[in-house]
Fold DUF3616 domain-containing protein.
Amino acid sequence: MAPIVLTHVAFCNVRFSSFRGHHQMKQFLGLLILAGLLWTDAVYAEPPLTINYPSMCDASAAVAINEKMFVVANDEDNVLRVYRRGEPGPPQRIDLTGLLGVSDKHPEVDIEGAARIGDTIYWISSHGQNRDGKDRPNRHRFFATKISLQGENVDLQPEGQVYTELRSDLIDAPELKKYRLEKAAKRAPEDNGGFNIEGLAATPDGAMLIGFRNPLYNDRSIVVPLLNPQQVIAGARARFGAPSELELGGRGIRSIDYSEKRGRYLIVAGPTDDDGSFALYAWSGSGDQVERVQNVDFAGLKPEAMLAFPGEAEAVDFLSDDGGVELNGVVCKKASPAARRFRAWSWSGR
């Protein structure tokens, strides 16, 4: 299979630097507004340490490539975008449409999770219906890409096969029968008891964890170990371990990632629909006990992806799905391509 071609989209490239003092802050914000890098008519307040990245709105999954770059998926198209951290300039665009084998009708794959093992990034789609509960087979995708760096450019090539039977495997798994996933899979993803995958994390032993936004079980979120991801992209049926049921305040999983520095998983939890709050939790990876991280406030953000960069002991970047945010009276996802952007909030980890 031929490598995926990278292209560029032109946007202004502005570096962010630190500042001190009220006067300098006013000058800094003024420059940003002139550059069009702040939300000019946003319905949400900006948290501190927030950067806007151009070209897309609906950040849904992301992986750090190195300490300077990351790749992010947009659940409204099949294009990956590579950004330089802290530089809201032009992304590299990686169109996956040819790789994923989608039909022309409703071609969006709805990528919602990503996890890295070595130089391979695994991607997972929602595997859900559309908002009206109608079947969307193009959303049944589990696949992988291999990273190679060509100077300042990132080359992602297909790794293995695109697997389309993961939802069926989950439904058929004896250890998951009590969750009634077959019934859930017939409902709209944000309906009560719908089917919606949004989390994917690599484990230290080479397996993966699949995190469900929906359904919940007894008001707890479901995490399912995928034991053989490497074999799945080679065409084998998926094998699962014993699931965990986590108390996240009635929320579902919107993102999950393993932090080597902390030795724990970080979980972004949010509403199963569009109405509710977000919170951050820490989990050992075994059992059902979680700890809410108290010094994190996601007010104004809809975090659906997070990035722990190599070499950083504490810092994590949370990416917001800003498709519904208004920019100058226009919802972001309906704005012109040049006006679209999403926010990333850097958390110090303290």
Observations:
- Residues 22-35 form the longest helix (14 residues).
- Confidence is low (pLDDT under 50) at residues 1-47.
